[in-house]
Amino acid sequence: MKRPTAKKYRSALLSPAVLAFAMGLLSSSGAAASCGVESCPLDHSALKSVKSDLPGALSLSVKFEDIHQDVPRFGRQRVAFQQVRRPDHDEIETSTRTTTLRASYTLTSTWSFDVAVPVVRRRHSHISFHGHHGNDAEGAHAHERPVASAEDDDDGAAGHAHDDVGTLETWHYTELGDITAWSRLKFDGGTSAQRQLVAGLGLSLPTASTQVRNNAGTLAEPSLQPGFGGLGILAELSSLGSLTVPLISSQHPSRWYTSARVRMNLAGNDGYRFGHEALGHVGLKIPVSGRFNALSQVSYSWRGEDGPGSAGELVDATGGTYAYLSPGLQIALTDGLSVYGYYQLPLYQRVNDVQITSDRNLIIGLGFDR
């Protein structure tokens, strides 16, 4: 049986009544665990200047990430909208624009501490089917409005397991995310060392709201909330070193770096636990001139399936494996002040069940070392 496509579904939205309803609800940006990757997997170790390793050094930065997810994927295969149906809801679009403020202070030649505060601007839309517990949220039924019925589908969708296309639901919010704090130990200490080994431990604090609702009063599922709802335990190990690149002046040495990070998530509201995570990075920082650094990084990201606890959520469409190539550029504006950007492209994406993924991610940042 022919499945409805995204193009066909969107054309159904163009009826005057549906369009008015959609315009009243649709606006803005976000990402959720059940909808693919929610943050750009990158290691920013090479972006700091040498003087940030000095005792008493203070580093400040602001980073902007843009992830737009509208590509349905089943396992590794790219599929059409609703080609693989879900029993609860079918994702249309989800995007995240996250602005993160970070402060790092070097206590001694070996110890440093930093804090990151994210602000998440999120938009999400999906088609929810009757019987999905999200429709039973407080006050939701009074605002339900089906976007199209099976009779409108001249391709025979009425014979599908779903008796109609469902209800359009959207969320749009800007909220504080979970604050993270790190403590790092640099084993070799010296700023002129050819190689550094750094170990870090951190905590992700459940500072973000887990009670975000849309305009209809429907509570967002846990994976759509701005925070994890529970404590996260973080650990990392990284290595940085210098290397000689032909035709590049030795006055400004090139740098290589590798890192590995894990995140263990504890249960939050109703015992819901986000899947544990593992990240790996390999990158280069090559000075093109006194002010310009060429950046390149390959990143690997794995996330396990979520644990539903007593929340009643379906978690089979959570978790996956990703690999990205991220070319970038760093420009020194003044002494200690620099701007940088990465354009992140997927090399490999494999998701559990069907999720929506992105074709590109964008990261822009401004850093200051004093």
Walk me through this protein's architecture.
The chain is mainly beta. The protein is built from 2 helices and 17 strands. It has helices at about 5-10, 15-25; strands at about 60-70, 70-75, 75-80, 90-105, 110-130, 145-150, 165-175, 180-185, 195-205, 230-245, 255-265, 275-285, 290-305, 320-335, 335-350, 355, 360-370. Strands 1-4-5-8-9-10-11-12-13-14-15-17 form a 12-stranded antiparallel beta barrel. A 3-stranded antiparallel β-sheet has the order 3-2-16, with no helix packed on it. Strand 4 and strand 5 (about 110-130) form a beta hairpin. The N and C termini lie far apart (about 65 Å).
Q: What's the helix and strand layout?
A:
Elements: H1 6-12, H2 16-25, E1 58-69, E2 71-74, E3 77-78, E4 89-106, E5 111-128, E6 146-149, E7 164-176, E8 180-186, E9 195-204, E10 232-243, E11 254-265, E12 277-287, E13 292-303, E14 320-334, E15 337-351, E16 354-357, E17 361-369
Antiparallel strand pairs: 1-4, 1-17, 2-3, 2-16, 4-5, 5-7, 5-8, 6-7, 8-9, 9-10, 10-11, 11-12, 12-13, 13-14, 14-15, 15-17
